[in-house]
Structures are given as structure tokens and as C-alpha cells.
Amino acid sequence: MEEKMEERDEITQEELKSIYEETIKGVSPGDVVRGKVVAVTDQEAMVDIGYKAEGVVPLSEFESPPQVGDELEVYVKTLSHKGEGPLLSKREADRIRAWKQLRESFEKGTPVTGKVVRRVKGGFRVAVGGVEAFLPMSQADVRPVKNPDEFLGKEFQFKVVDLNERSSNVILSRKRLLEEELEREKTAFWERMKVGKVFEGKVKSITTYGAFIDLGVVDGLLHINDISWKKIKHPSDELSKGQRVWVKVLDFDKERERISLGMKQLTPDPWEKVDEKYPVGSRVKGRVTGIVDYGAFVEIEEGLEGLVHISEFSWSRRIKHPSEVLKEGDEVECVVTAVDKENRRLSLSLKQVAPDPWETVEERYPVGKVVEGVITRIYPDRALLELEEGVEGVLRAEDLSWNRRVRHPGDLLQRGDKVEVKVLGVDVERRKVRVGYKQTKPDPWDEFLRTYAEGDDVRGKVSSVTDFGVFLEIMDGVEGLIHVSQLDDRKVKDPREVVKEGETLSAKIVKIDPAARRISLSVREYKRAKEAEETSKFMDTQSHGEGFLKLGEILGKMINRENNK
Prior knowledge:
By secondary structure, the chain is α+β, with helices and mostly antiparallel strands.
């Protein structure tokens, strides 16, 4: 027993220390171990790694100070630091772990997570754990990078495309990872693609013929004709860039990666039941969407337009152009006159909203009735006046005055004048009512016929002189013609040589034609009658006197009178 005690006394302190350390834990410099933070000072963190003494980690190795109780991996740099516990390194442990992760990722092709820390020539430096890797600018995204600064400070996943531990060189690619992910997404996308599938997408760009819709991994084309059931001039009338829309797949080509989309197909086609909803004869309200030379287009609901032909604008007015009556945006009421579902055509009428006034026009405007109208148009030979909405009267120039020859209705009338006229005739087929203005006043011919007869003498003023004779105004509104052959006993070549306009003449009525309203006059016959009358009076005077004149004396006096003229 004593010998054994002596043997124990010979064991050195260093040997005892080594035996003690081995019994506590097998920890050696260069190991990476897991520990728990037990205390934090201003400059370091105390970490229990199961060793006889707590190790220390400088706070400079932490991005933010740790909390007591935090667990972390550390690298053992030395077991004794300044005569105290082990000196540990979190940064080195992170670096070792990062390199291990990078090797595994490189070998297996799995992604790693890193944080873009700064820009360098040609790309970025990315922190992957404790290792800085290089990310070329061309490998940062699938699209060219326009604003590199937007990557700084952000975490992404990357693919390790090259690795050299000796030179601590690591090259990353985010682009390759995105392309692989996109390819997987495309494969999955096309596997579930089918006609009729509905997607929510975003308007990527707009062209004159349609819009491209971003469906996530593939773009589809939304043609202008498939945006809305109504006609639109440009896709931008309905869409804007960045707008989110629901679309339906109409067709697709997987090999060429092309998809045809539709928006209007998500709502019912308004033409499917147009004949049931808008039968012929029904009244509809709508908005004028377009004016053309031959009519106007009216939208009665979205995607459903009808045409009002120019002939259906008015019962009576002659419309030269639809813009005289309508303009785009006007709200109108129409009657459906025809439905062509197969060719998607709808015919409308404006005028049929009101009854056709010509159906009862003969009852309302009997011949002889005096009515009032407003002059709407004036032509060289006639004037048109509106008797009522849809009924127009025709006033000819010869029906304007009893006593004036009207060369142009505009000499007496102006557009907008209100006038009283008498109905002279109704032509329902041609939709015309003939009216007269002079007929509302007494006909001077009636008075003339009551006053004069053939053979009567008249006296009047010359109203006009022509090559063939002279017109003599007998009474207001009544003229007679003195033919050139009836102006004198002698031959007259030009009436203007013997008569002047405005001169007063006496003549004899030789013929009256009431039907043609013509009166033939003669100055020559008037003079002959007057001479005969004078001769008769002279003869009567001589026969009752003291003596009789001889026949030769009488003839001599008459000859002398003729020579003295």
C-alpha cells in the first residue's frame, strides 16, 4: 500500500491536468463545436461548449449582439486564451460551414442562399455564410439588369457554377437557377393547359391589334376583336398597361409557345338571344356610337349595335347627311325593324317611333282647307313648308300670287316664315301635299268675268312690252295681251316703237279664254269702233240740221282727216 502511494505522488500536475481534461470532454483546437451563450460583455460573448471553462467569442464577429441562451456553432482556435478559457470564433465556424455547403451544392446542383453585399467590377460580391462569392452581372437575372443597386442588401438563391477552395474562388449564377425554375414552371404550366381554361393575367404591352397578357411564365395574345363584344377603335380604349384582367384560353400551340386569349368570351354573347330580347317592332333606347354617310350606329347594350339607315330618320324630311340630325353620344329611342342573327345585323328606325303621319293625312288635310305652315326650304320653282312633324307642303311659284309673275319664290318668302296656305291636292303615294298661297285670297278673274265680256272696251296700264306684243293690266291681278298685229291698222314691226311700259292704253276685248285665263285685246279694233261711232254720230247730226251735205263733201272731210293724222 505504501509503495502504491509513493507511485501516485510521483504523477506530475500536468499529467493530472491532462487526465482531468480528457474526462470532461474531448475538445481540441480546430474543432467546430456547438455551445450556448451564458454571458455577454461589452466586447465578447461567453460561450459554454462543455469544456471545463467557458470560451470567449469577440462581439465583432456577430452582425448583432447575441442574447444569453442563444445556441451557435463556434470554431475552437485555442483551449487557453490569456490563461483563461478557450478562444472561439463564430466567423471561422460560419466559413467552414459555408464551404461545406458550397461543396455539397456544387456537387449536387442544389441552390444556396446568399446576400448581395456590394458591387464590384463586372458584378457583385455575395456573402454565403462566411464566404464571399462572385456573381457576374450577366448572371444576376434572366433579363438585362437596368438598376444594379436594387440588388444590394437583398437575399436570393443562387446556383454554384464554379468552386476553387485553394484560391477561395466561388462563382454564382442566379440566372441559371431562375431559368431552371422557369423551365419547370413552364412544363407544369403546359401540362395543365387546355382550351377554355381561365387565367388572371397582367397587361404587359398594348399594340394596335391587341394586347400581350403576362400569365406568369408565358405571354398570351389578346386580339382586339376578343377584348369586347362591342366594336373598339384601339385596345387602349379598354385596357391599360399593368392592368390585371381575367382571360380565357381560345387556342394554344405548345411547340411554338403561343396562346390566343379572349376577354369577351367570359361574358354571354349578346347576339345569342337577340331575336328573343329585341323582336321586330320592339322599342329600344341606345347611344349613337358612329356616324357614316348612309346612317348612324346605335349601341343598345354592350356589344350589340344596330344601324339606323338614313331613310329611317324622318317620315318627310330629306336628310342629306345623318349629322344634320344626330351626333356621337346622343341618346335615342328607336324601333327594331329587322334582326339578322346569323350575320349579326340589327336594323333600327328613328321615324317609326312616331306613327306615320301620312296614314291619315287625307283626313287631316282635305282639299280646300286653309292651314298654316313654316317655310323650310326655297327652290327656284317652289318652296317647301312644314305643316306638321312629318308632313311637308309644296308651294309652287305660280301659286304665290294672282297678279304677279313670281320669277323666284325667294322674292316673296324667306326661310322660317309662317304662312297660311290652302290645300290644293294630296298625293299619299308620293307623300306630297300641294298648297297655294294666292288661293287664300279672292281670285280677281271671278270679278273680271262678272264685270267684262267680249267686245267690251277696257283701259289699263302697260305692264310689259315684248317682241310679240304688249301686256295690259286691266285690273289688279288680270292682264290681257295686245298682239303686235292688233296695235294699229298699219304694220308694226317692234311694239316698243309705238308703246312704252307704264303707258295707259284703251283696247277692245276680242276674246276671253277662262280655262286658260287668257284675254286677247285689240287697239286697232278699239279705234275702228270709235271711228265708226263718230261717223254715226256725225251722220245723225247732219240729218236733223237745216240742210244736207252732199256725199262727196262727207267723203272729202274724212279723207282730209286721215291725211292730217
